[in-house]
Specification:
binds manganese (II) ion, 21% strand, elongated, binds (2S)-amino(hydroxy)ethanoic acid, Alpha-Beta Plaits, Aminopeptidase
């Protein structure tokens, strides 16, 4: 029997979820534990319940909808996230959760019972935009972060993760954590240019790049912008500008795979007629080779030390998150490849430059990912787009791989 997902229903769910936190440029801003995230979680709870799933919330707000199987073997998890970046796209994360739900809806339509249970999971705080670092709650489930560290993370308005989780009413029980599973599958948009360059709808993901997130703090002397002679200044923003130029060089001098990004910069007091006193900025390094990341962080530290001593300002580098390069499980990758072949789709193997919750799940469960082509490779931007045909192809790969792994 040929079983396929209901594409129109999946696209309608994507469109409906995208209305929550919709931004004027056609994207979404749905930061974790915000009112928008709560509304999205409430909608997902309704949809999961309507699909006959047993909905469980764990102590970090991770949501799991369990579909019973004919055995009580550990489930096959189909997961992703519904939180977004600021002015992000409607597919990043959400497509993976809704494709997982569509798999369940399709199995229900066809009266199919799998041997192993299925579990649809929405991870709290995949993006790490409001509460750094990213992958915070899949990381906690995999043992990378302890629950105290997670609850004490603070956003830029000084709000605590734990307080916000309580505020939206999504703190459940630790025993509801998704964890022991027989397999983990995550469908996600590629967010890069590879599938478009090869004109292919889906990708078979071999693993995820490693990354390092650092916060650099430069402290100088705040003073009046007028009467302060240039040679007497200790300006942290000029020092930061020189360092940020150097961050780009640290990536480009390495090879054509290394990437480095300064995404956020905070200047104090940030007014036109005062020489800044303090500057704080982020540095995001990514690479498939852990030793390259080590080198890049060391080069950043040396650069900060050199520029700060030259300019008589104080510099501090806090590398607060490292995620190791993570290969996926060959058996899971093979199940995804089988599905791609059955569907007659071209095979393209690639690694992910973006981080995903599958990284931490791969540390504890055989895991794999399916990519759906991103138009223009664009993501973390309102113009993020994947075509209905590519979404259908990806969701059918998820369906067939899930059937194979839960047999
Ligand atoms: O940073 C990342 O790669 C992911 O989008 N959180
Ligand atoms: Mn994502
Ligand atoms: Mn993202």
């Amino acid at each position: 029997m040929t079983i396929r997902i209901n594409t129109a229903r999946l696209l309608e769910s994507v469109a409906e979820l995208a209305r929550i936190g919709a931004s004027e440029g056609g994207g979404v801003t749905r930061l974790t534990l915000s009112d928008e995230d709560k509304a999205a979680r409430d909608l997902l709870t309704t949809w999961m319940t309507e699909a006959g799933l047993d909905v469980r919330i764990d102590d970090l707000g991770n949501m799991t909808g369990v579909r019973r199987g004919s055995t009580d073997a550990p489930p096959v998890i189909l997961a992703s996230h519904i939180d977004s970046v600021v002015k992000g796209g409607r597919y990043d994360g959400a497509l993976g959760v809704l494709a997982a739900l569509e798999v369940v809806r399709t199995l229900n339509d066809n009266g199919i019972e799998t041997a192993k249970p299925l579990a649809v999971v929405n991870w709290t705080n995949e993006e790490g935009v409001r509460f750094e670092p990213a992958l915070l709650c899949s990381g906690a489930v995999a043992g990378a972060f302890d629950v105290g560290y997670v609850n004490d993370r603070v956003d830029r308005d000084g709000k605590r993760f734990g307080d916000e989780l309580d505020r939206i009413g999504y703190r459940g029980e630790i025993e509801n954590r998704p964890g022991s599973a027989s397999a983990y599958l995550e469908l996600h948009i590629e967010q890069g240019p590879v599938l478009e360059a090869d004109d292919l709808p889906v990708g078979i993901v071999g693993g995820i790049f490693g990354l390092a997130w650092s916060e650099v703090t430069i402290t100088g002397k705040s003073d009046h912008a007028g009467p302060s002679p240039m040679h007497l200044r200790r300006d942290p923003l000029i020092a930061a500008a020189e360092i940020i130029q150097g961050v780009e060089r640290i990536a480009t001098m390495e090879d054509d795979i290394a990437v480095a990004t300064v995404g956020r910069v905070a200047v104090e007091p940030n007014v036109i007629n005062t020489i800044p006193g303090k500057v704080v900025f982020s540095v995001d390094f990514r690479h498939p080779d852990e030793s390259v990341l080590d080198t890049q962080v060391s080069r950043l530290e040396a650069l900060v030390e050199h520029v700060c001593s030259e300019r008589k300002v104080e510099g501090k580098v806090d590398t607060f998150w490292r995620s190791r390069p993570t290969p996926f499980d060959p058996a899971i990758v093979a199940a995804i490849r089988d599905a791609v072949r059955v569907l007659g789709l071209g095979e393209r193997d690639l690694w992910s430059g973006a981080a995903h919750d599958a990284k931490y799940m791969a540390d504890i469960v055989p895991s794999g990912m399916i990519f759906v082509r991103s138009q223009g490779g664009l993501s973390h931007a309102e113009g993020e787009y994947s075509t209905p045909e590519d979404i259908e192809a990806g969701a059918n790969v998820l369906l067939l791989a899930a059937l194979q792994l839960s047999a």
